Amino acid sequence: MNLAAIHHEATQEYCFCMEPGKFLFRLQTGKNDLYSVTLHTRDKYLPLRIKDTRRSTPMKWVASDGLRDYYEAELEFQVVCLRYCFELKDHAGHRVYFSNCGFTDSIPEDIERLFDCPQTLREEECFRVPSWAANKVIYQIFPSRFAAHTAVEESVWYQAPIGSKADLGGSLRGVISHLDYIRDLGVDVIYLTPIFQSNSTHKYDTIDYYTIDPSFGTVDDLKELVDRAHEMGLRVILDGVFNHTSRDFFAFKDILDNQAESVYKDWYYVDQFPLCLTPGSHNYKCFGYFAGMPKVNLRCPAAAAYFTDVALYWLRKAGVDGWRLDVADEISHDFWRNFRKAVKAEFPEALIVGEIWHHAPDFLQGDQWDSVMNYPFYRKRPHLLEIWDSCEAIPTAQPIHCCGIWSEATIQLGCFTCAGRTSNGKSWRLHYSFCCPVCQ
Fold this sequence. Notes:
Structural class: alpha/beta
Number of helices: 9
Helix content: 10-25%
Shape: elongated
Strand content: 25-35%
Number of strands: 24
Largest sheet: 6 strands, antiparallel
């Protein structure tokens, strides 16, 4: 038995509340190493002489990666605090017990040596996300290149190769005119990349967060898009770029004009004055060293309040359903905690999704984001498609953890979607999710 591969912590990642009175326990082991895993539990405060609260629950294998297997068990109970350990049996029949004190040959008699699950604390930490967002397919749209509402020359629209700065004339009205098409793809939620005023095609260097970029349309166009999408049962979320701005954003321009005397000097990370804008020699923090995207200091109360108000404004003004937050893992936890409190206080069903490229348990404690962009799964997609392309039919298998199920024609994993046909003519459709505790 590979004891070094066995891992569990009495934290939300491995022991968490699914709903009041219902909990999930997770254990990590070496791949193909164990024959069975059993979860042993008992009440912390009731002595066995008063009541025997001991309980044994078989754990189910739920997923594997290249090195590890994952086992889970769901339990319902009502106690003040639960204590627990794991019984591990390998294929040769060897048996050990794993608890807070490590590995033993039997269940520790000293209850203080077991793992601890305080029920009320875990229930108060219960991860609550908008009910409408579960198992939804989200379709990402880059507005300038999705669809135009006016005629565009074919030589422009179908240019190849296409440069990073090419603007194809797409607009919000172009999206509106394709809502039937989007719905027929099986999409549930539309995610628009930045739509606010900017001089770039991508709009991630925002000049004015309260103005729709004129090339995309107007506030009324956005409201119509959201209203019509809602009528069709679709949701709409926007891209919030609060980590950095354009150099033409009013606060940064004021610093350029007034230097150290600017009332906005604390809105950014300025190393020294006067400001130097020369790329490579600039003396202020930026996104990815791009001098044109100065990084916002969201520890500054005024800056934090401004960007939180931006999020609330568009939830109120246009009725959008939430935010996807750009470069969210480079912004402080304190900001996101306050951001969530402000948004959820007024819009409890608004979806908050952070962009992050790695494991994100510190952001997913229920006090910051609802979910994350699941890039690790996205990167596995080409390999999956290679496998399916070589199959005579779409494979079937048992359920793979919380992120969904395989079926004969569809894998439903909850977020983005793509579709096509294999080399033998079989149709396939792949949905992939923002977040999966195992896939990450």
